[in-house]
Specification:
Blueprint: E1 14-19, H1 23-35, E2 43-47, E3 57-61, H2 66-80, H3 82-92, H4 99-112, H5 126-148, E4 152-153, E5 159-163, H6 170-180, E6 186-190, E7 195-199, E8 206-209, H7 223-238, H8 247-253, H9 256-259
Parallel strand pairs: 1-2, 1-3, 5-6
Antiparallel strand pairs: 4-5, 6-7, 7-8
């Protein structure tokens, strides 16, 4: 259960802001944490409500607000630079449930001016170090997906890609593919989080919440797409040298969790 914050309550009591698991939700929480004008060590951000509430804490639910989150994003970019901005954004889409508090206190550290130079270089700070780790983990997954994501042409002319990433990286992937495929109608579907991004050719892409209107087994490909899939599988199979197989190296370079969605690993009929 959450309740409004009482401005006359004891400032020493810990205040916990419950945020939506999204960039907008967490950054709105950061904005509202500053609005409280209380010592930052008495404020904590968390994702979702805990089943076991902590004693002697004031809980407050944060409603995502685009204007507030945009102000925080502009402040991050202006105060800390592009590299730190990118790392913080990558940390914000991590699957780690402690990301909200880590990002909040990293921003507090940077604005306080207690460190000089690049904010994300100060890894002795536990919050900065946490954000750095989350960003690195997300960045590796994005790097993998830029090479491993596979689009398939459906009979209606739409290019469709399915995937199930650990981190919620859709917002960071779409600008890349929108730039690479500006003249194509395409969509990327996150099977784990049940939403997809749609890019109409020549227009701005957008998100759609909910499952696709058809199952994977119901996908109908164009004749050319089916032929290319078959040729690509046979090509990948024919160039393999059985005597030089190194399964451990393969797993390091291409984790199994990506292969379910890759054309070359589908069983050849």
């Amino acid at each position: 259960m959450t309740e409004p914050i009482n401005e006359n309550s004891n400032e020493a009591a810990e205040t916990i802001l419950i945020c939506e698991d999204s960039i907008e939700g967490i950054l709105t929480g950061v904005y509202e944490a500053y609005e409280l004008r209380r010592p930052h060590h008495t404020i904590r951000l968390q994702i979702g409500e805990e089943q076991n509430l902590r004693l002697f804490c004031v809980y407050h639910k944060v409603q995502p607000n685009e204007e507030k989150s945009s102000k925080v994003m502009r402040t991050i970019y202006r105060r800390f630079g592009e590299d730190a901005y990118t790392q913080i954004c990558q940390a914000l889409v991590s699957y780690d449930m402690e990301k909200a508090d880590a990002v909040y206190h990293t921003i507090v550290t940077g604005i306080s001016g207690s460190y000089r130079g690049n904010l994300m270089d100060h890894l002795s700070n536990r919050y900065v170090h946490k954000v750095f780790q989350l960003s690195r983990n997300t960045g590796i997954e994005i790097h993998h997906l830029l090479g491993f994501l596979r689009f398939k042409e459906l009979q209606n002319g739409i290019l469709l890609a399915r995937y199930h990433p650990k981190n919620d990286v859709m917002a960071l992937l779409m600008p890349h593919f929108a730039d690479r495929l500006p003249g194509e109608d395409f969509a990327i579907y996150d099977e784990g989080r049940k939403y997809y991004a749609v890019h109409p050719k020549g227009k701005q892409w957008y998100f759609v919440r909910g499952e696709l209107p058809f199952a994977q087994e119901q996908e109908i490909y164009t004749k050319q797409e089916a032929e290319y899939q078959m040729l690509y599988r046979h090509f990948c199979s024919s160039i393999a040298i059985a005597e030089r197989k190194n399964l451990d190296l393969q797993r390091n370079m291409l984790p199994f969790r990506f292969r379910k969605y890759m054309t070359e690993f589908v069983q050849i009929d």
